[in-house]
Design a protein that fits this description.
Helix content of chain A: 25-40%
Number of helices of chain A: 11
Distance between the termini of chain B: 23 Å
Structural class of chain B: mainly beta
Largest sheet of chain B: 16 strands, antiparallel, barrel
Largest interface: A-B, 59 and 69 residues
Structural class of chain A: mainly alpha
Number of strands of chain B: 25
Radius of gyration of chain A: 25 Å
Number of helices of chain B: 4
CATH class of chain B: Mainly Beta
Number of strands of chain A: 0
Strand content of chain B: over 45%
CATH topology of chain B: Porin
Largest sheet of chain A: none
CATH class of the largest domain in chain A: Mainly Alpha
Shape of chain A: globular
Oligomer: heterodimer
CATH architecture of chain B: Beta Barrel
Number of domains of chain A: 2
Strand order of the largest sheet of chain B: 3-5-6-7-8-12-13-14-15-17-18-20-21-23-24-25
Distance between the termini of chain A: 70 Å
CATH superfamily of chain B: Porin
Radius of gyration of chain B: 22 Å
Number of domains of chain B: 1
CATH superfamily of the largest domain in chain A: Cytochrome c-like domain
Order of helices and strands of chain B: HHHEEEEEEEEEEEEEEEEEEEEEEEEHE
């Protein structure tokens, strides 16, 4: 070898565990005894909440949703390399999981709920954050878009329900599934992609292909699989995806939404 | 063989006892958090940044201290997880492998002249993992591995973690049998090319082994020296991962990001000396690593880390004299869209050599490893790795080698990979017992499945 590199550090005696334990113990004590500044009480303040939300966002959210909130974080590509979904773009007006009408922004509670419950398959539930922390993140997420400064957002009203999942209701739900032409995307049995997917017409706003989920799996209902959650997704649509709002279509017979929900949930109970 | 069968049977029984929930993901953490593998992995076993932060935080989501909450239930003053939320299983190996040499044996496998061979070998390794959190900021990890090729079953890694000591992300403590390089830019156990052990014959205590085939491991992580032995006199093979890049050693370390996401420190102390349990020579090895994360923007992240590992009486030469074997180096990782690039350059140095070895033992060795993975489709990954080892040790034995490895992995699902791999020796063959040059090519077809 042309060169030699002597060790950078030499001890007069070999390093002993007792020495390390002693020095380590002293350092650990000093670290633990320092004041916990971050826990100091402070009055609720929007700007402070946004600032706290920013700090939390940078640790818990940035790696997927990106510095600018556009959903282009360092890990975003690998979540949906060549197909949807990629992380949500907070700077736009398209949010999938809302209680508001199609085209509207989600309510504060919608954002809070998504952070709390996560999205099956793609985003963990951040239950480890306190409620206050999650609200701070909601406020910081809203700071990515000026659209949030406009008028308040109102959840749509669901028809009275849910209805009991009787055989008749499930049968009617199946009829509604056919009438609404759901099979074009979700397939005749709601378990295999339909013809539009085969034709390559199902794409999200990033032009990434979307595979319609197998609706016999409860985890396919990304916004939750309670009857109310599924009904809400059908009525509001999933903005940014080909899943349109069926609110107008079902307005003539509003109870049909519950029959349809009963049909969809019956698929996961089928043997 | 009986213990292997027992191990396999117990895993199958355990797996069948716990049906998978309705999540798309299968392995333990994915089950617990109800997400796909790709939330934490670029493609397993490589971690993405979220996965790295999850690991650093003691198996808690980045930014949180959720060890006592997510998916847990309370029983008195305990918070408990379902066993499915912390139990995982991995099965991997090369179903078919073909190895060619420059110099062939005639009939039987003799020293230095092994015969070309094609053989079935699946499965090579079963691993059973248990990992998670006991409560907030107290985590655990245990891996029991059965390696059929090496005829070994035992605890591969096992440690406890105490996290967020003082303030969030200030200090995390690991204690147990741990992998020191876990948080560096290029971790030993986080690469698309599985470690392939050498094929060698032990010729007795403090005797040089006969190496028929070199191990196919990153040159940067390798032991690099011919003529070093552990405390019991067993030869340390030149391609075995060691020191900072050991698969596991007993000790403790502390890491943290007290100044924000851009900087990570790690200091640790180990028994060292490649000893499976205890520390017969008493002095400890210690190491320090710093990592700088930068360029965290749209679809881009990069980091750079440097480390120094100081050995103290952690190896012997053939006269049974102790030497101090140390290691210094740096590594980097850049990810941009579908490209995952990582590299490491490492210098090893042996000090305190007996005078009689001064002219016969090369006390410095270097290793360079450069790897890139490209995700061509959602399910298809290509990888390439270049290794250059400038070995040290006994001058009659040492030689340099350069290897190029190629891999194509097809992910049936994010937790099931089938792969083709080829390792090519780029250096010309030469006479004599030089396993680094005699090895010409190895081709593998295998699978890697995690449940």
């Amino acid at each position: 070898m042309p060169f030699s590199w002597a060790p950078m550090w030499r001890f007069r005696q070999p390093l002993q565990l007792k020495h390390v334990m002693l020095y380590g113990g002293v350092m650990a004590y000093l670290a633990c005894s320092l004041p916990v500044w971050a826990l100091a009480a402070s009055p609720p303040n929007h700007d402070e909440s946004v600032a706290r939300g920013k700090a939390l966002y940078e640790q818990a959210c940035l790696l997927c949703h990106g510095v600018t909130g556009e959903g282009n974080g360092p890990d975003a590509f690998y979540l949906g390399a060549y197909s949807a979904p990629r992380p949500r773009d907070f700077t736009g007006a398209e949010f999938k999981f809302r209680s508001t009408a199609s085209g509207e922004l989600p309510t504060n509670a919608d954002l809070f709920q998504t952070i709390t419950r996560g999205i099956p398959g793609f985003m963990p539930a951040f239950l480890g954050l306190s409620e206050a922390d999650r609200w701070d993140i909601v406020r910081y997420v809203q700071s990515f878009s000026t659209l949030y400064q406009e008028a308040g957002r109102t959840p749509i009203a669901l028809p009275p329900g849910p209805l009991p999942a009787t055989p008749e209701s499930v049968t009617r739900g199946r009829e509604v599934y056919v009438l609404l032409d759901c099979a074009k995307c979700h397939g005749p049995q709601a378990t295999q992609p339909g013809s539009l997917f085969a034709q390559g017409e199902l794409r999200d706003r990033r032009d990434l292909p979307i595979l319609p989920p197998d609706l016999s799996q409860l985890s396919s209902f990304k916004n939750g699989h309670r009857p109310q959650d599924i009904a809400q997704s059908i009525l509001t649509g999933l903005d940014g995806t080909p899943m349109a709002s069926f609110r107008e279509t079902l307005s003539a017979q509003p109870e049909d939404i519950w029959h349809l929900v009963n049909y969809l949930l019956s698929l996961s109970r089928s043997p | 063989m009986a213990k292997h069968l027992l191990f396999l049977a117990s895993i199958i029984i355990l797996s069948s006892l716990y049906p998978t929930p309705d999540a798309q993901a299968i392995p333990a953490f994915a089950r617990k958090y109800n997400v796909n593998c790709t939330v934490c992995h670029t493609r397993a076993p490589r971690l993405n940044r979220t996965g790295e932060r999850f690991l650093e935080n003691g198996y808690q989501l980045p930014g949180t201290e959720d060890g006592g909450t997510t998916k847990k239930f309370r029983l008195g003053d305990l918070t408990l997880d379902d066993v499915t939320n912390y139990l995982g299983f991995r099965l991997r190996g090369n179903a078919l492998r073909t190895v060619d040499y420059a110099r062939h044996a005639s009939g039987t496998n003799i020293d230095g002249n092994p015969e070309d061979r094609t053989e079935f070998g699946f499965p090579e390794v079963f691993s059973l993992f248990a990992a998670g959190t006991v409560t907030n900021n107290v985590g655990f990890f245990a891996e029991v591995e059965s390696n059929l090729e090496e005829d070994e079953t035992g605890v591969e890694r096992a440690f406890l973690t105490f996290n967020n000591i003082g303030q969030h992300d200030w200090a995390h403590l690991r204690i147990g049998k741990l992998d020191p390089s876990a948080y560096s830019s290029y971790a030993t156990l986080r690469q698309q090319f599985e470690l392939v052990g050498d094929n060698s014959v032990d010729n007795g205590s403090f005797m040089l082994p006969t190496i028929n085939r070199i191990g196919l491991t990153p040159a940067a992580f390798a032991s690099k020296f011919h003529g070093l032995f552990d405390q019991s006199g067993t030869a340390i093979l030149p391609t075995a991962p060691s020191l900072f890049h050991a698969v596991a050693e007993m000790g403790l370390d502390i890491h943290g990001r007290p100044f924000g996401d851009w900087f990570l420190y790690q200091v640790g102390i180990l028994n060292g000396a490649n000893e499976p349990f205890g520390d017969s020579n008493n002095p400890k090895d210690w190491y320090v690593m710093t990592r700088f994360d930068f360029a965290q923007s749209d679809y881009l992240s990069a980091n750079f880390s440097g480390f120094a590992y100081f050995g103290s009486n952690n190896a012997k030469v053939s006269t049974m004299a102790d030497v101090n074997w140390s290691r210094y180096g740096f590594a980097t990782n850049v990810r941009y869209y579908m490209v995952d690039f990582y590299a490491a350059f490492v210098v090893d140095h042996v000090a305190n050599l007996p005078n009689s070895f001064k002219h016969t033992f090369d006390e410095t060795a270097t290793g360079l490893t450069v790897e890139a993975n490209v995700l061509a489709t959602d399910r298809l990954l290509f990888g390439i790795r270049f290794d250059h080892l400038d070995a040290g040790g006994l001058r009659t034995q040492r030689t340099s080698n350069s290897l190029l490895a190629l891999i194509a992995k097809f992910y049936v699902r994010s937790n099931i990979a089938l792969f083709l791999r080829d390792d090519i020796n780029l250096r010309p063959a030469q006479g004599g017992r030089t396993p680094e040059r005699n090895f010409r090519n190895a081709f593998f077809v295998g699978a890697d499945v995690a449940f």
